[in-house]
Amino acid sequence: MSDDSVPLALPLLRLAAGSSEVTNLYRELRKPLLRYLICLGITRDEAQDVVQDAFVSLQRHLSSGGDQENIRGWLFRVAHNQARNRQTSYDRRFGEALDGKKDLQANDATPEEVVLEKEKFRRLAAGIQALTNSERECLLLRAGGLRYREIGEVLGIATSTVGDTVERAMTKLAEKCNV
Amino acid sequence: MCDVQGKLIGWIDRELPADQTGEVERHVERCEECRRWVATYGQLGEAFDSYCDAVMAAKAPRRVPGWMPVLAGAAVAASVMLLAFLRTRVEPPSIVAPAVASASLPNSVTPPAAEPAPRKATMRRRHAARGVQERGTEVQAMDTAIEIAIPAEAMFPPGAVPNGMNFIAELRIAPDGSVKQVRLRQ
Fold this sequence. Notes:
The structure holds two protein chains of two kinds.
Chain A: H1 9-17, H2 21-40, H3 44-63, H4 71-86, H5 111-129, H6 133-143, H7 148-155, H8 159-177
Chain B: H1 5-12, H2 18-30, H3 32-58, H4 67-89, H5 98-103, H6 128-135, E1 145-151, E2 166-173, E3 179-185
Antiparallel strand pairs in B: 1-2, 2-3
């Protein structure tokens, strides 16, 4: 299945509910959700299952007249909780994920650029490993485009706490990465 | 360290209250250290984003090259053709002269006595286990058997056996893959 394709279950649900809203949301948010879940440490297959389940839950939520505000935060929260429930490998470190797995650069990168990029990612990985789970999750959700209020809803913490956590995490990363 | 530094991330993310936003903005304009931190946080954010993309890409499923299905199909077709060829080679010849062949063979390749005398000219291909049941000999212990048709002229000097005569070699394969026993029959 390509990244932009829509799973069979969703069009069927869409027809049943008479709405294309979920399909549009799926196209918009599937990739950010997948990235967040994979960076949390679950496998790609698990992440795809979680995303699928989250959108099926969203369809049910909307069909039953649920709150339509902050759907993006709602989806991330559902996916986050499902990932935690099913995840035995949740503690796999995000910062270890790239070691020796794949060339990260585009084909036109020079050898010097490749080395520099690898070194940058190595330091960044070391910095990420030094973060707490909460700090890492806040940064991941921030990178996913969520506002602090939405991050707070996903993680169940206050918006002001999110601001403090993000600021602390970025400072730690800056120190570890020597930038 | 500048007092405003703790608000810089919130300012970059546009999460500060309106009254603080203007205050930080004016401060950053005249504070070089804070401007450096703003640039640093911006670079860190981009690097973190790239890192997330790289993690996701590193865990992407490997794509199968486009020529792989074609190659697999060709391999399957070749295997089927080879098997079909080998099956036809197992057929014994329609005309045989057992007296000459058996006279030139050692004892181990003498055709079994229980073999029915009149043979059909048509295809007779047996699984080794079926032959074991018919003969009831020590061959019953065979765990693996392979039948290979070998032209007689490939084994004996010219003229030693009639033209067109074939032998069936029954191989007994040991668990380690080596050949434990070879039995020739017509």
